[in-house]
Amino acid sequence: MVATQTNNLRAAPTTTVAELQDTLADRARGHHDITVRAGQLRYDADIGAIEVQGHREYGLRTLALNQIAAKLGVPAQYLRKCPWDLRAENINHWLNENRTRSFMLRCDGDEVRAVLSDRYAPVDHLPLAGWLADSFGPDARLRYEVSEEVLHVQFVNGEGHNAGVNDWLHPGVGITNSEVGLARVQVRGLLFRTICLNGLILSGGEENWTRRHIGSVELAGDVQKAIRRVQDAAANGTNRFAGLQGIRVPDMTALFERITKHYELTQAEHETVLAAHQIEPGDTLYAGVNAVTRAGNAYDLPLDSRLKLQDIGGRILTAAEVGARWLN
Prior knowledge:
The protein is of the alpha+beta class. It has helices at 17-27, 62-72, 76-81, 84-97, 125-136, 219-242, 252-263, 267-279, 285-295, 303-321, and strands at 15-16, 31-37, 41-44, 49-52, 57-60, 102-108, 111-117, 141-146, 151-156, 161-162, 168-177, 185-193, 198-201, 208-211. The protein has three domains: 15-27 and 124-236, no CATH class; 31-117, no CATH class; 247-327. Strands 1, 8, 9, 10, 11, 12, 13 and 14 form an eight-stranded antiparallel sheet that branches. A six-stranded mixed sheet has the order 2-6-7-5-4-3. Helix 1 (17-27) packs antiparallel against helix 5 (125-136). Mean pLDDT is 92; it is low at 1-5.
């Protein structure tokens, strides 16, 4: 799904939990799983699909091809470059060599969307959204982005802190999940700046919770407990962040150079941070962090870069509080 103007992490949180549940239910209509041994699989070069003994033929999405290659010990980049017949020869050879191994095929209709270990116990987005409804209520407002690979949800809740003239900071909670093996379940504290829709992901221990997809029957309760804990920690984050207004930065350009080096920003990310500072200039660390998180809303950066910048904003806050020398 391509994020729309009203459905992305750049927008104001206007979607309800109930609306998110409806969207996820629609996406999940064709989802089903098959557990098979490698010996039950055969790649058909003529149609570019994988045959599952006792089932039918399924197309392999790019991620699924990469995952099956990794599990069979074949470089995915090499496989993608192979002609269909050579690709089939390689895959079928290694499927036979690993014929007793079991895999979980996560399917969407007639396509395999992921190939995972049979020990993997996925947490699907739809039940997770149900836990969020239990925690926040079905009418709670959020913003989110969802793709074939990952779901990111950000709630804004709690009393705000006015850091300046109509510069409201609100605590919130960010939740991340992947149904296809690319991310753990994560619950993280969040600060939301109303004036520019910036999101800052907090990085302290009390502001973070992660869990592997282990299928624990207690996972629903664990997520809800983590949300409550993270909410409490995030509520203290607004005052902490506003406190950066008292830290003067004599050379903002040099600060951004240090941030780029320390956090290994790409050239595009660095340039976007500089452009964001031009929109809202300032000579404090508060202004510097806001430039970083504002860059996290840029339309020309991919989602992973935008989340990276939101996360870096929180890491800079923590670094300032512990007196990290590289900031000076």
